[in-house]
Amino acid sequence: MGVRGDRAGAHGICVAAISEVCDLGMAHAEKSYQIRKSAPADLPAILQLYEDARAFMRGAGNPTQWGDYFPPVDMVREDIASGRSYVCVPAGNGGGAQAGRDADAHGRMHASGAYDDAHDDAVVPGDGPGQIARYDATEILAVFSFEVGEDPFYKHIDGAWPNDAPYGVVHRIATRRGGTRGVGAFCLEWCLSRCHNLRIDTHENNAPMKSLLAKLGFTYCGVIYMDDVREDNARLAYQCVDTQD
Fold first, then answer.
1. Region 84-99: what's the mean pLDDT?
2. For 57, which of 62, 81, 150, 158 could close a Cys bridge (C-beta 3.0–4.6 Å)?
3. Residue 95: which region, alpha, beta or left (left: phi > 0; alpha: psi -120 to 50)?
4. What's the angle, vertex CA 162, arms to CA 71 and CA 11, rounded to 5?
5. Mind giving me the DSSP string for the chain?
6. Domain of 15: which CATH number?
7. Contact 145, 79 (CB under 8 A)
């Protein structure tokens, strides 16, 4: 299920797929993208992205996935503080533009191994000369949460996961509307480049996300249930596994 061995490179990573996504971003937005960890100063721009995403969902026939408030501000703040929040920005000179292309040269979590965060080459604001100064919050093109570890809501599934190996999880991904075609794919491929066993969920009415996941090789695994804060808490669960040589 969800195995993309035909797209895997020498180290089991989808090198061809990552390059493809990078080129897609350049072709459609006349620029390439890079991923960096979110900073507290990004909060207003991130909240605006989520507000716009909720409006888009309502207009696209998916009004209940995030409703009028999800994700709440405290959750977004916690994502940033914990280091699991990332943003996609136009590529600059901060050293992260090659993050996806060079990923197979670094340690990461494979389908049967552990994630090595010492080699996480996401750009961290302030971790290099001049990096934070190059990024304006108004340039944030997408935001998402990514971490490696068990998600408590994934323990029970009406269906079956393809394996029980350690996995990475992507949540709360939102992209800026207009002029950023390929950004969502870029973000998910970046996550796959760091964790070859990746899970994600979405609402049954989220047609754009379901289409994107299918294009990227994710396989539908069943239905999981989120916290009871949201009445509409059933989600379609997907997983992508990149095989190793």
1. 67
2. 62
3. left
4. 90
5. --B-GGG--TTSS-HHHHHHHHHHHHHHHSS-EEEEE--GGGHHHHHHHHHHHHHHHHHTT--SSSTTTPSPHHHHHHHHHHT-EEEEEE--SSS-TTTTTTGGGS--B-TTS---GGG---B-TTSSTTTGGG--GGG--EEEEEEES--GGGSS-EE--S--S--EEEEEEEE-SSS-TTHHHHHHHHHHHHBSEEEEEE-TT-HHHHHHHHHTT-EEEEEEE--TTSSS-EEEEEEEE----
6. 3.40.630.30
7. yes
CA–CA dist 236, 204 (Å, integer)? 6
What does pLDDT average to over the chain? 75
Q: What is the pLDDT of residues 186-231, one digit of tens each?
A: 999 999 999 999 999 999 999 999 999 999 999 999 999 987 566 7
Q: How far apart are CA 226 and CA 40, in angstroms?
A: 27
- Phi and psi at residue 198, to the nearest 5°: -120, 135
Tens-place pLDDT, residues 164-180: 999 999 999 999 987 67
Residue with tokens 């989220």: 206
Stronger pLDDT, 218 or 135, i.e. the higher one: 218
Q: How many domains does the chain have?
A: 1
